[in-house]
Amino acid sequence: MHPTDPKLLRAYGDREGDGMVQLSFTLQVPPSARAREAAKQLAESHGLSFTAGYTYSHSLDNASDNWGSGLEVPTDLAHPASSIYGSSNFDIRNRFTFSGTYSIPGKKGYGQMLEGWSINTVVTIQGGQPWGVNDQTTDFSGTGEIFNPVIGAPGNGIAEQWNFFGNPHDFTPVHGWTDTNGGVNGGGAGGVPYFGGTSNSTCLARSSAIGPLAVASLTNLGCYAVGSSVLVPSAYATLGSTARNLFTGPGFRDWDFSVGKEFKFMERISAQFRVEFFNILNHPTFTNPFGGPGGGPSPSTDPSQGPGFGINAVTPDVAASNPVLGSGGERAMQLGLKLVF
User: Fold this and answer.
1) For the chain, what is the largest distance between any 2 Cα atoms, rounded to a whole number of angstroms?
2) Residue 246: domain span
3) pLDDT, tens digit, for every residue of 257-292?
4) Model pTM?
C-alpha cells in the first residue's frame, strides 16, 4: 500500500505519514495579569531541549573479526562450536546517552553580552566489553596448536585455555588494575592479583581436586585470585574449561560540556563562539585488555606471562587507530569560532 493511500492506517500523531509521531498539548490560561506573566515565563523557558537513549543488547558469535585469530579457532575438536561460541568482542550490554542544550534567556542591550548564550552537554555511560584467556605459550593439550600461526605471525597460534572457578565479574578491572602487583606507578606490573607457584591456598585446593598434573602446572605457572574467584592453569595433557570472552572489561563514562555565545551583526550574518570541554571531570578510563577496536591477541590476556595479566593501562583513544576528542582521553579543551551567513 502506498504511503499516500488514504486507507493507510497511521499512528495517532503521525501528521506526515512518515511514521514519526509528534505530540503537543495546549495549556488553557484564564485571562489576567498574573496569567499573562506566567505564560511569558513559560515561553522563555522553552530554550531547553534534550535527547536521551538507553540500549540493552547482547551480541554472541563464533568469531568477531573477519581475519581470524587464535582466540576464535577451537582447540577442542570434539566440541568445536561450543568451545568458541560466546559474547562478541564488541558486545556492550548497557549503554546510556544524554545530550541537552539550553538557550539561556537574555536581555537586549549591553553590546549583546546579555543574550545569545547557550550551554550544551553530552553524557555517555556504558558497560565494558568482554575479554578472555589467551595462552599462546603453554601447550597444555600437547597438540602443538599454539605454534600454528593462524594469523600469519609466529607466536599468534591457537590459544589454550585455563580453568576458572568463581564469579567472572570479580575479574572486572578496578581502577584498570593499575594498583595491584606492585602498582604501575610503583614500578610494578599491575593486573589481576597474581600468586606464584602454590602460594595461594584456594588455587592449590582447586588444582589438587583436579589432579597431580594440575598441581604441577600450578607450581610452574602460578594463578590469579580475587576474593574466592580463581584462575588456575589447566592440567597437562588436558584442555582448559574457560569459556571464550568470559570476563568483562572496564566500562566507559564520559561527560562533555560546552558554552556558546552568538553575536548577530545583520539579519543574515552571525558569529558563534564556543568553549568546549571533553571529559570535563578528567575521569580516567582504561581500555579493554584486548586492546583497541576489534581486539586481538595481547600479552595482557596471556596468563602464562605472570603479573600483568588483565591490564592495558592506556586510554581508549590511545589504543584506537584513529583517536578523537571525547573517546576516553584526559580532559581536553578547545575553542571554536563559526561565521554564519
Assistant:
1) 90
2) 33-42+50-340
3) 999 999 988 888 999 999 999 999 998 888 888 865
4) 0.75
